[in-house]
Amino acid sequence: MSARTSPVGDELAGRFDDVRPLRSRPPFVLFEARERPGGRRVVVKVPDGVRHLWVDGLLRTQATLLGRIGSHPHVIGVLDSFTLDDGRPALVLEHATGSPRDAVTAAPEPLRAAIATGIKLAGALETVHAADALHCDVRPDNVFTTDVGEPVLGGFDEAVSTAPDASRFPQHVITAYTAPELLEGAAPSPATDVYGLAATLYELVAGHAAFREYAGESAATVIVRVLGGQVQPIVAPDVPIEVSDLLTWAMSADATKRPPTPAWFAEELARIELRQGWPRTHLVTG
């Protein structure tokens, strides 16, 4: 469907130039566009389908969270927000549409690029946690590459507040990267995001996910595979054993047996950089 045959696309075309659909990830649709004036490229995120108050509230909550942490160089930036004609909210986001898989594969030293990406994303997650939130859905499809080639964390649709008086909403998306404790209905913790980050790095390093996921299969099938399976070591001539060991440790089924925080995980990655003789990637938080 083209932007000009979608009611929302028609409305956005009245606000932006070069509007075109980017992707649909229920309950949201994303469009690429250029701002007026100036022509800056952006991504516009709007609810899909009919209006639902919980979806509207979710997008406004994301706007608030990203407004607090979006200045971090490795968190997707929110540039603006506005209200559609029917009252639904919309977010204008930083243009970051590249794939970390492609960026790592194209790098002169893919393993070094993957490790650096992990440290940068760990800094993003530490910043999220300091803002009293947990991401709960860290996976390759929620990591993007900016127009200048830097990885940024996005996809905050499943994020939850850790404030004492906050309500925890159920997990809506089940994937092969979802931490086992979430699949079992337990409360998330910082170690939950460590699992997602390790699962993401596992795919960037190994070239495939630790647990395979197939089109059309049920969430129950994914849950059984993750809870009943074991993360296999990465056996490849260009992957040091210490990298494989770290990733399998950080994907332990028991959350208490993982590195407890993204910063801890990042320090382990930094030790690998040191032993490999690579330049240190700085952990940026706050």
TrEMBL record:
Protein name stated in the entry: non-specific serine/threonine protein kinase
Residue intervals of the Protein kinase domain: 16-270
Key words of the record: ATP-binding, Kinase, Nucleotide-binding, Serine/threonine-protein kinase, Transferase
E.C. no: 2.7.11.1
Keyword Kinase set for record: yes
Taxonomic superkingdom: Bacteria
Pfam families in the cross-refs: Pkinase
Keyword hit for ATP-binding: yes
InterPro entries, sorted: Kinase-like_dom_sf, Prot_kinase_dom
Gene Ontology molecular functions: ATP binding; protein serine/threonine kinase activity
